[in-house]
Amino acid sequence: MAGGNFHGCSKEQVVAAQLGREASIPFEVAVVCPFGWPAVISNEPVTPEGAPNPNLYYLTCPYLIKELSRLEDGGFTERLQERLDRDRSLAEGMKVAQEGHRRQWTMALRGRKPAGGAGSPTIGGAGDDRRVKCLHAHFAYHLVYESYGVGVLIGDQLAELWCSDQRCRRLTSNGDG
Question: In the chain, what's the furthest Cα-to-Cα distance?
Fold first, then answer.
């Protein structure tokens, strides 16, 4: 995991600026961009109130959030699902990733019991391991585990992997790095 100081700002300050809100779940930074800003955070599997949080990895990079929303709005989630439905190798890779995510989620519980049941500790929180619900969650998982095939296909749709303008510097008042 990456450290806690980003160009003079705490991880909490930067992630709040990136998301436009305070993070609601305790987290660590899992991936930083080439400019040294958080790009993916690793969340606790339960909220402070004890509710289950299915996503261990959450995308915070404003550039990637915008680009993946554009892909979702353009129907790429459905096209990716169609590809998964006919490509056994890709589907098997997603199954392996879902199993790995579920194991990590269970280990991160450290014996705690989420209120109201376990939820769906899958990438993207889909109720079905074979379904793509959220490109953001799958791409965040890919940034942590680069060989994840679904994430590779998502990344292939991006003109650039990272922004060219270091926009997170502008988001933080102390980001003079």
Answer: 49
DSSP readout, 13-73? HHHHHHHTS--SS-EEEEEE-TTS-EEEEEE-SB-TTS-B---SEEE--HHHHHHHHHHHH
Residue-wise pLDDT for 72-98, tens only, equals 999 999 999 999 999 999 999 999 999
Q: What is the DSSP letter of 158?
A: -
**Residue of 12, 14, 1, 3 whose CA lies nearest to 173:** 14
d(CA 149, CA 165): 28
Contact 119, 102 (CB under 8 A): no
**DSSP letter for each residue of 68-126:** HHHHHHTTHHHHHHHHHHH-HHHHHHHHHHHHHHHHHHHHHHTT---TT-----SGGG-
38-43 and 27-32: which strand pairing? antiparallel
- What is this structure's pTM? 0.91
